[in-house]
User: Fold these one by one.
Assistant:
Number 1:
Amino acid sequence: MAKKVVFSGIQPSGVLHIGNYLGAIQQWVEGQAKYDNIFCVVDLHAITVPQDPKELTDNIYRTAATYLAAGINPRQSIVFVQSQVPAHAELAWLLNTITTMGELSRMTQFKDKSQKGGSGRASVGLFDYPVLMAADILLYGTQAVPVGEDQTQHVELARDLAQRFNHRFGKTFPVPEVILRKSGARIMGLDDPTKKMSKSASPANYIALTDSSDVIRKKIMRAVTDSGSTIKFDPKRAGLHNLLTIYQLFSGQTEAQIERHFAGKGYGDLKRELADLVIGKLTPLQTKIEHYMKNKRLLDAILKSGAKRAARLAHPMLTEVKRKLGLAQ
Ligand code: ATP
Ligand code: LTN
């Protein structure tokens, strides 16, 4: 049986944190052999909020370098930059014409992000962001989309648009499914474990993939927990549960193994060991990222070849969509 087509992407808009790594990249790497993968640096999504052009360029490279450093193999998976394949923007326009204002107004990410900038000031691009994301997904006949939990509403819209298009114009798109990890789909903020870890929060909230060992240790030691003492995976103790989840995902151990290991130990022990574990995993990742950042020619070659392969895959779908709409091709 043919492998399922998987598509996912991350915005090159600032630092990546361990929520992005554990919620998205780590599960991409785990599923790499099982699926036909396309991993994109979604720079057109990043510019829906203001970006400094120089920093954006650097972040595009850094995001791609992070995919590769984490274990995405460009010979096995397609790795490319969204703006290098114009079919994304083109399909987004076509899908715009079957999307309603009401649907986009209900998107919680738009509501959150547009409120931050003050009413009426959000860009049309920010409003339209989910349609571009649907285009990313549908362009390749994607069947599965591995993301963190915050993106499920957007994948729902992609499903709705696929079904609507198929219904109006004849079967064209597979209806994509979201893939969420059982654990790790929603890593919480270290300073506030009731909200998801986010790069737009204060630095105490997240561990950036670029944080130094000292900073990682300080942030973990200061992470908010309750006043309990036993170390158990209890979802009601949000701060502790989050630290244990991070421990689990970086160590690959089961809940039972971890609880046994920490039996009779305190929160301080857990935090110290977690800091060692995270530092032990992120240090080699940082070294590999820097290796790619110093080798821009290699990075450019990988991304150019990825864009070529992606464009070749996208072409027949885009042509079919135009033809079905009656745009004589
Ligand atoms: P942020 O809130 O940090 O700005 P985002 O969701 O807007 O993040 P991206 O960097 O594009 O921005 O997210 C990339 C991927 O990381 C997505 O699949 C998203 O679901 C996932 N992700 C983001 N935050 C978390 C988190 N706290 N836990 C798990 N997955 C996350
Ligand atoms: N909106 C996503 C990034 C994204 C994406 C995609 C994810 C853009 N296009 C297509 C999966 C599939 C986010 O994580 N903020």
Note: Residues 10-11, 19-20, 23-24, 147-148, 150-151, 185-187, 196-200 surround adenosine-5'-triphosphate (ligand 1) (CB under 6 Å).
Number 2:
Amino acid sequence: MKKIMITGALGQIGSELTVKLREIYGTANVIATDIRSNDSEAAQAGPFEILDVTNAPALATTANKHGVDTIIHMAALLSATAEANPVFAWNLNMGGLMNALETARELDCQFFTPSSIGAFGPSTPKVATPQDTIQRPTTMYGVNKVAGELLADYYFNRFGVDTRGLRFPGLISYAAPPGGGTTDYAVEIFYEAIKNGHYSSYIGRGTYMDMMYMPDALTAIIQLMEADPAKLKHRNSFNVTAMSVDPEEIAQEIRKHQPDFQLSYNVDPVRQRIAESWPNSIDASAAEEEWGFKAQYSLSSMTPDMLQKLKQKLAQPN
Ligand code: SER
């Protein structure tokens, strides 16, 4: 990775990844792109271009203009939004990915795109979900993710494009909020704990999903992209995770720092159904063995950091 273009750079992952990559690879060497701009550091403190990833010529022209050797393709709809707009989700998630892969092929770029725990479905083994297993998701997002994993493998096998990917769990972060995911409750709970001392969860008690703190997600992307290709047997879509939690466990951890915090439930049937179709906990041993993945943050070490950073952020005038 010497000159990197990121799509969806103002989203939950992209906005922090852009800043971190600029620290490591140099500000001028990380081109952030998104469908719209904002006043974030990712958009303002380095190269930034407006880019609609469904516009194939625009994607190719932007990458070509900056002479990039790496494309990190983040632009996509998350699970709940995709469920509400399945045709748009197909067009954006698959069309954007295809355009980005084609540009990577044409310009001989290294390529990263995230998959998700959403690539699994109700017939997948629910506990310690293996790297290679049944993938019959029942959401549009999941269909997109499975197709994306296969497409990225295809571009490697057929054209030799150096594609790599991770199956992310829910990502917990304080910088940019997630938009329209099923795991978003695990971020909202921290915002509401600080703002109101109370959170009403749309995911039910006892519903377990994997989660990871954003610093671990960023490290995992960089580590995988820098990994020796000879050691990668899977390449696309390694299971990665740091914790398997339900709303109650997060609330208990928050209470260690904020004893009065209260959790109640107002379950959203759509997102609950999606959550129940996903694994309770995934097995990340292939990532550990093939490129040394190891999460630094557990629920108990993440919680005080998240509360402290979010308090600082919410205290700032904007
Ligand atoms: N965080 C994503 C979602 O909930 C899962 O990959 O949609």
Note: The chain has a mean pLDDT of 97.
Number 3:
Amino acid sequence: MIRHLLSAADLDAGTATEVLDTAARMDEAIADREVKKLPTLRGRTVVNLFYEDSTRTRISFEAAAKRLSADVINFSAKGSSVSKGESLKDTALTLQAMGADAVVIRHPASGAPYQLAGWVNGSVLNAGDGTHEHPTQALLDAYTMRSRLGRVDGLSVAIVGDVLHSRVARSNVLLLSALGAKVTLVGPPTLLPLGIEDALASGTEVRYDLDEVLPGVDVVMMLRVQRERMEDAYFPSAREYTRRYGLDGARLRALPEHAIVMHPGPMNRGMEISPEVADSPRSTIVEQVANGVSVRMAVLYLLLGGAK
Ligand code: ASP
Ligand code: CP
């Protein structure tokens, strides 16, 4: 098993499948127990180091570590000595002194987890770095596809919207392609990185018309329009964006009957996804959050080499 999880590219098909299988076993093991805890990481310390806001990733890493009986230290940059100018390196060395076996990091700078991996002895898990990657999100998305549709290999997956700013899209393209899915990126040209077609794994497509793509997909993954990362106007108006790229009831009905709708959250309800779609039985949004705990348990377990 690898020591750090910094990018979805760290996972070949075999390793990714091992994570998904382990997550399924974690689910079974927990379901059978009255007390939802396993003793596997007893005596180990997991530090959650969050320099950027998070709801799902932060609480699910905490829940995952606690379900494995690890000690958990939650560090949020807000309210810490970061406001006094303390650097990432000095913060990391302080955490190292507390005996961290694993550090989970979310940071606004792409590449921050790579730097951290050079400063601490424990495993580093990337929980989202800038616009770069979010590998555990891709794993939980693949896990959700597998549990809803029975497989990832051979699925046709459309990832729609603000691809330019999306670390979720980047990690999913890498992981889903490795697992044999066909990925199509859909969005306005302004929100698709320049030259993306050349940079993509072979077989990945880029399309600009959502309505043409929908009837042929098994999975449609909607991305949040990340306004906090936008300095310019990338589309004429929110209304125009929704008209061309929003998933509403009419577009939901254009999907094949078995197809599922995903979104990593948080959602801009009414913009990239309508409330009718978000709350429909074909939406896996709430399941994705629950699956995030199982997948993060599996990753912590495999990286820290927990006892059986
Ligand atoms: N929560 C995801 C992320 O942190 C997606 C998003 O924020 O839109 O990358
Ligand atoms: N999907 C996701 O990463 O959500 P948070 O930003 O709330 O952690």
Note: The CA atoms of residues 183 and 204 lie 5 Å apart.
